[in-house]
Specification:
- The protein has about 425 residues and is of the alpha/beta class.
- It has 17 helices and seven strands.
- Strands 3-2-1-6-7 form a five-stranded mixed β-sheet, sandwiched between helices. It has a two-stranded antiparallel sheet with strand order 4-5.
- A hairpin with a 5-residue loop joins β2 and β3.
- α5 (about 120-130) crosses α7.
- It is elongated, with a radius of gyration of 32 Å.
Length: about 425
């Protein structure tokens, strides 16, 4: 039997090629129809980004007309209430930020369209911190998109910390300690330099895998702030970021509160209580804290009038840090409710930024003479003095820690304070 001719073979090849081409065309049509059906039924899954003309220049002009013009609509008191600070302090911060951080300088894109001004970005960051509003809300108020507002808050907090932490987030120097000791001496607590306590801040977007570490007695993920505050509400020490499952004692063990004393960076300012001299200043705390030489607790169960009087005066003075927490939370409402950022670094920067702004406002409005900390003349770091003998350095640090944790000094000091308060302020209870 003869095979197919050459012409028949070519015709079969052509028919197969046309069939494959038609099949490919049908597949493409089917894919396009499927995409069209998907866009019609579920448009959100394939939504495309659209340009929104927010008119940044108009938003800037409106903001200036309301708050920053010479004949602005809202007076100084309303600016203070909404920005949490005086207009002069706002302009000082803005001028410093523009020099340090190029992000807040006015820029133009390749089409010549103006970006956001420093006034718009700083206002957006301050409103998010002050009101605790969702970031998307600034789109309506200031025409700033959610992603830009989020980035602005992060950069603003980081820049504030870089610029002002050395002055407004520091330990007291010798001049500050003398002033604090004199002020608290008139209250019946010579040698006291502040009150110590902790507060919790809920972390809404804490990763689920970390809940076991960050969920404490509040039943929700939280982060702990340890702070020392004086009577004028200035926060002298802050240590933030410990998981909420830690109690105050565990936070104190990780805190750098006593590091400067251990490293001989604190001045020796002796004080007298009930005829006895002491050389280590102390903080007022509640009963959960250990009986260290640097911590003075109240009495849980006072028995006689003198003990009741001491407990009453101690608890009244210890409320300084509680008042500071209350003012911090009311002034920067983002610290009241659950924080919605995802990473620990941003949450920590927000808290530290709020504390720095809190201290800046206190100094600006109360005219406090607070200067940057400088090392005390004549003091030598132990690491420099004993760097060639690690064993001697370890013994030195251990002895300094022993001075901090001396329970006998705590007992004598608290008893002397009790007698001192009763002898000098005991008559107050008789007239009440």
């Amino acid at each position: 039997m003869a095979g197919p001719s050459n012409w028949q073979f070519q015709q079969q090849i052509m028919e197969q090629f046309l069939a494959l081409q038609q099949q490919e065309i049908d597949d493409i049509n089917m894919i396009e129809q499927g995409i069209a059906d998907l866009e019609e039924n579920e448009p959100s899954r394939v939504s495309r980004r659209t340009f929104i003309n927010r008119d940044r220049v108009k938003a800037h002009n409106e903001l200036v007309k309301k708050y920053f013009a010479v004949d602005c609509i809202y007076p100084q008191r309303m600016f203070r209430r909404r920005f949490r600070m005086r207009r002069e302090l706002f302009h000082r911060i803005r001028a410093d930020i523009e020099v340090v951080e190029p992000y807040f300088q006015l820029k133009y894109d390749c089409t010549g369209r103006a970006g956001f001004t420093s006034i718009q970005k700083i206002t957006a960051a301050l409103r998010i911190l002050a009101y605790g509003n969702p970031i998307d809300r600034e789109d309506e108020a200031l025409s700033i998109a959610e992603t830009t507002a989020t980035e602005t808050v992060r950069i603003f907090c980081r820049t504030i910390i870089d610029m002002y932490s050395e002055q407004y987030l520091r330990s007291p120097n010798e001049r500050d300690l003398i002033r604090l000791i004199d002020e608290n001496k008139s209250r019946g607590f010579p040698g006291m330099i502040g009150s110590l306590d902790c507060m919790h801040w809920e972390w809404k977007n804490c990763p689920t895998a970390w809940h076991g570490q960050y969920v404490g007695h509040y039943g929700r993920p939280t982060m702990v702030l340890e702070a020392v505050a004086s009577q004028d509400l200035w926060i002298w020490h802050s240590f933030f970021g410990m998981p909420g499952s830690y109690n105050d004692i565990s936070v104190l063990d990780h805190s750098p509160l006593f590091d400067r004393f251990i490293q001989c960076q604190t001045p020796n300012i002796p004080y007298e209580v009930n005829g006895r001299m002491y050389h280590i200043p102390y903080y007022l705390t509640d009963c959960i804290y250990p009986h260290y030489a640097t911590l003075v607790q109240t009495l849980k169960h006072p028995k006689n009038e003198m003990e009741k009087h001491f407990a009453k005066k101690q608890e009244a003075a210890r409320k300084d840090v509680e008042r500071a927490f209350g003012v911090l939370q009311s002034k920067w409402a983002i610290t009241q409710g659950p924080v919605r950022f995802w990473d620990e670094e941003t949450v920590t920067n927000i808290m530290n930024c709020c504390i720095i702004l809190h201290n800046m406002i206190i100094k600006d409005e109360r005219h406090l003479n607070i200067e940057p900390w400088q090392p005390v003349l004549g003091e030598v770091m132990p690491s420099d003095l004993l760097e060639h003998d690690e064993g001697l350095l370890g013994c030195f640090i251990s002895s300094r820690m022993q001075q901090v944790r001396d329970r006998s000094v705590n007992g004598r000091l608290r008893n002397d304070l009790m007698i001192h308060l009763w002898n000098n302020f005991g008559g107050e209870t008789a007239h009440m």
